[in-house]
Amino acid sequence: MPESKHRRKRRGGRGLGDAYAVRVKPRGPFAIFGNVRLFYVVGAIIMMGGLAAGGIRTAARRGGGSQQATPAPLTPTAAVELTATPEPTFTIKQYDAPPPMTIDPEKSYTAVIKTEKGNIRIELFAQDAPQTVNNFVFLARDVFYDGLTFHWVDPGFVAQAGDPTDIGTGGPGYTIPDELNQQEFTAGTLGMALERDQANSAGSQFFITLSDQPTFKGRYTAFGRVTEGMDVLESLTPRDPTTNRDAPPGDRIISIDIEEL
Fold first, then answer.
1. Highest mean pLDDT among 27-31, 64-68, 180-184
2. CA 221 to CA 201: how far, in whole Å?
3. 8 A C-beta contact, residue 257 and residue 107
4. In sequence order, what DSSP letters do the residues of 201-230 get, joined into one string?
5. Closest CA to 219 of 161, 187, 188, 178
6. How many angstroms separate the CA atoms of 106 and 126, rounded?
7. Cβ–Cβ contacts within 10 Å for residue 125, how many?
């Protein structure tokens, strides 16, 4: 059956959408239902208003009484503390007088000088130089030498240490008398340094010969000889602070241990 003109107009209007709404205009308060665009706009406004009202009511409930939510605590970021690696330090000790005699000259004493390059073992001449050995043993046991350096090293000649100033002018605050004896100054002999070669001016500074020094006999007190570690002595850093204050740092004495038999 052919469709009537009115039916074709209505079917076409459903397909035309807004164009059909413009031609068919309901009147009165229901006019918005006939305007699709206006209907959508008003619906969207109503929906947004409802959501906003719901959000306000939710916030109000959370904000009052026992319903208030407890905020989660913040985890603080751990602070990173930067610290510089400290340089080795030592205390400069000074004394009012030489130490009292505490060693037994009839016993055997050995000194083990521990350095950054290795150990040096020295037999001490307690019978030939009892006061000098007693002084050295006292200072070693009182850790006077710990942290000091071989501040003057002349290859093939001598290596000297025991100065807290590190430039060859320091001492313990006292002096001890010389004890010249018959020991020869062969390579590896331990002797006491003197201040400007003045007699009886020894204190804490000592030297070890790196070669035979026969002219030292009768001038300096020999009080020990190396039994192990000459290779360590010969590897010490050459240094002369009297001519070069910017010389490389001397090799450090870690400790001097005394063995008594």
1. 180-184
2. 11
3. no
4. -BSS-EEEESS--GGGBTTB-EEEEEEE-H
5. 178
6. 7
7. 22
- Please give the average per-residue pLDDT across 127-152, as a whole number: 98
Q: Does residue 152 sit in helix, strand or coil?
A: strand
E-strand ranges in the chain read 109-115, 118-124, 152-154, 158-161, 189-192, 206-209, 222-228, 253-260
**CATH number among 2.40.30.20, 2.40.100.10, 2.60.40.3200, 1.20.1070.10, domain 109-260:** 2.40.100.10
Tokens of 180: 């010249």
The span from the CA of 63 to the CA of 77, in Å, is 30
Phi, psi (deg, nearest 5) at residue 149: -125, 165
Instruction: Enumerate residues 6+ apart whose C-beta is below 8 A from 47.
Output: none
Hunting for tokens 């959000």 — which residue is that? 55
3-class state of residue 60 by DSSP: helix
Domain ranges of the chain: 5-62, 109-260
- What mean pLDDT value characterizes the chain? 77
Structure tokens at 143: 């850790």
Mean local confidence (pLDDT), 198-217: 98
Residue 9 tokens, joined:
């107009």
